[in-house]
Each structure stands twice: as C-alpha cells, then as structure tokens.
Design brief:
Blueprint: E1 5-6, H1 18-30, E2 35-37, H2 46-55, E3 64-69, H3 79-90, E4 95-100, H4 108-120, E5 124-130, H5 134-141, E6 151-155, H6 167-173, E7 177-181, H7 198-206, H8 211-219, E8 226-227, H9 234-243, H10 250-259
Parallel strand pairs: 1-2, 2-3, 3-4, 4-5, 5-6, 6-7, 7-8
Helix pairs in contact: 1-2, 1-9, 2-3, 7-8, 8-9
Bound molecules: NADP nicotinamide-adenine-dinucleotide phosphate.
NADP nicotinamide-adenine-dinucleotide phosphate binds near residues 7, 37, 131 and 233.
Pfam families: Aldo_ket_red (PF00248)
GO molecular function, one term: oxidoreductase activity
InterPro entries: AKR, NAD(P)_OxRdtase_dom_sf, NADP_OxRdtase_dom
C-alpha cells in the first residue's frame, strides 16, 4: 500500500461531472496513485460502475482496488453475492482489499468467516474494517481469525484528531494500517471556513501551496497513514498528488498543533 489513494464518494451523482470524475481517476493513476477506494453503498453501486469504466484497459496488477460491504450484507446470506456484484460492476475478478463499512448486527465471527472464505476463493486479497473504534478492534481480535484484519478506515483530518489518542497507537501496535477518510474535511465544507483559517494559510504560504493541500500533507505526515481524498477533476487530482510531496517542517506542525490540537482524552469515534 502507499500513502495516498483516491476516494470516490459522491461521484456518479451528476451526469455533467462524470467525464471529469473518470478523467480525475485516470489522471491519478497516470501520476502514480494506484489505490482507489469505493463501496457498494456509493450511489447504490453506480460509483463502482464508474470506477470500472475508469480502470478499463489499465494494468489491473498495478492497481489496488478497495471496496466495502454494508453491515447488513456482511453475513453468510449476502456477503458473497455483494462481493460478486461489486466485482461485476468494477469489471475485475478480485478486490485487493474488502472492508466492512461500519460495525453492524451480524456477529463478527460470521463476518470474519465470510471474509476468509472470499479470500480462500481468490475474490479478495485482504480484508479490513471501517469506522471501528478501539473496543470494536478489541472485540475483533477476540474472534478466531479476526487478527487477519489489515486496515481500519476512519475519519481523520485537522479538525478531527480523536483517533490519535488511542485508536491509532492500538492499530500501530497490532499492525493494522490506518486509512484516513475525508482528509480534506470534505473540501472544508464540514468545518466551515477552514480554508480561510489564518494558520493554515500561513503554512500554505510557506510551501507555495493551498490550504487544502496542507490539510492533505498533514494527514499523511507520518508516512504510514493512507489518506484517500476524493478529487472530482484532474486539476484537483494534480494538486493532491503534489500535496503528497509536501514535507511539513517541525515549525509548521507545531503551529498546526496549537491551532488544531488533538484532544487530551479519547472522544468517541468521530464518523460520517
Ligand atoms: N469508510 C467510510 O465510512 C467513509 C466515509 C466517508 C468517506 N470515505 C471515503 O473517503 C473518501 C474521501 O472523503 P470525502 O469524499 O468525504 O471528502 P474529502 O476527500 O475530504 O473531500 C472531498 C472534497 O474536497 C474537494 N477537493 C478535492 N481535492 C481538492 C483540492 N485539491 N482543492 C480543493 N478542493 C478539493 C472535492 O471537490 P471536487 O469533487 O470538486 O474535486 C470534494 O468536494 C471518500 O470519497 C470515500 O472514498 C469513506
């Protein structure tokens, strides 16, 4: 895995943007970003179809395709059919990584058994989870085979740093990769005015970069966290790829820490 991937949520919603969205993903691949994150949930499968179109004709072995199963499909009854439907829409015969989208009602034992069965049959290479807090990870580790989970995808951006208190250290200790979703705080929409923040702009000025690029460079600053920003145009994709090359200085990081401190105590997991 590498430190930046491409998100796809909210793609395929506007026919007028479709060509740009496909071009953005292809631009990303051309620039060396090989991980694409999607889900059966997005656009009720329409986003996987769009991703399938974007990757058609590319060297599949060079790509890392991640999709997710919704919790209500994560048991013996539905999971294989869900996975097969995702593969069909994506036009591929395996997923590099399959995630449980968030904790649900199906017992973890059953979900793990289904993931392992898909893996044994070659439909997926590896599996993981998303929106799992420390107690969820501990429960997963108590299940037979649960420790085969390789990744947890969680909300992480400058204004949502709660995972740093105990989830991120837990994952590091247990060899579980952290995938940071909404690393741009959804383009600054969620955190109103974030793009205009003076500290963020001062750091951006020092790097001849945009505030959004700094948010992204910050999310990937440890060289381990895999951030998956969504770019709906080749221009945004190029900015994001550039951001992956920005190294924040200790002074930048200290300024950002003062302005956007991590919480002192563990809050409940923040998620969308
Ligand atoms: N596991 C989960 O539960 C979960 C939840 C949420 C998200 N995700 C995944 O994480 C991905 C990323 O999260 P997200 O889509 O919520 O939000 P995000 O990546 O934080 O932000 C996306 C927004 O940022 C804008 N943007 C992208 N690059 C930009 C740039 N260089 N300059 C200015 N604006 C830029 C995009 O606009 P344009 O479209 O115009 O480029 C879009 O409005 C999702 O797409 C999805 O794959 C997973």
């Amino acid at each position: 895995m590498q430190t930046m991937g491409m998100g796809t949520w909210h793609m395929a919603e506007d026919a007028n943007r479709r060509a740009d969205e496909i071009a953005a993903l292809r631009e990303g691949v051309d620039l060396g970003v090989k991980l694409i994150d999607t889900a059966e949930l997005y656009g009720d499968g329409e986003v996987e179809t769009l991703v399938g179109e974007a990757i058609r004709g590319l060297d599949r072995s060079e790509l890392c395709i991640v999709s997710k199963v919704i919790p209500s499909h994560a048991g013996h009854k539905d999971m294989r059919a869900s996975c097969e439907a995702s593969l069909k829409r994506l036009g591929t015969d395996y997923l590099d990584l399959y995630l449980l989208h968030w904790p649900g009602a199906v017992p973890l034992e059953e979900t793990v058994a289904c993931m392992e069965s898909l893996r044994a049959d070659g439909l997926i290479r590896r599996w993981g989870v998303s929106n799992f807090d420390v107690d969820d990870m501990e429960a997963l580790w108590r299940v037979p085979g649960g420790d085969s989970c390789v990744a947890n995808q969680v909300l992480y951006h400058l204004e949502s740093r709660g995972v740093e208190v105990s989830l991120k250290p837990w994952m590091r200790d247990h060899g579980v990769a952290m995938m940071a979703y909404s690393p741009l705080a959804q383009g600054g929409r969620l955190a109103y005015g974030l793009r205009d923040d003076p500290t963020l702009n001062a750091v951006a000025g020092r790097h001849d970069a945009t505030p959004v690029q700094i948010m992204l460079a910050w999310a990937m600053r440890d060289g381990e966290t895999i951030a998956i920003p969504k770019a709906g145009s080749p221009a945004h994709m190029r900015l994001n790829v550039e951001a992956a090359g920005i190294t924040l200085t200790p002074d930048d990081l200290a300024a950002l820490d003062r302005r956007f401190p991590a919480p002192a105590r563990k809050p409940p997991l923040d998620w969308l």
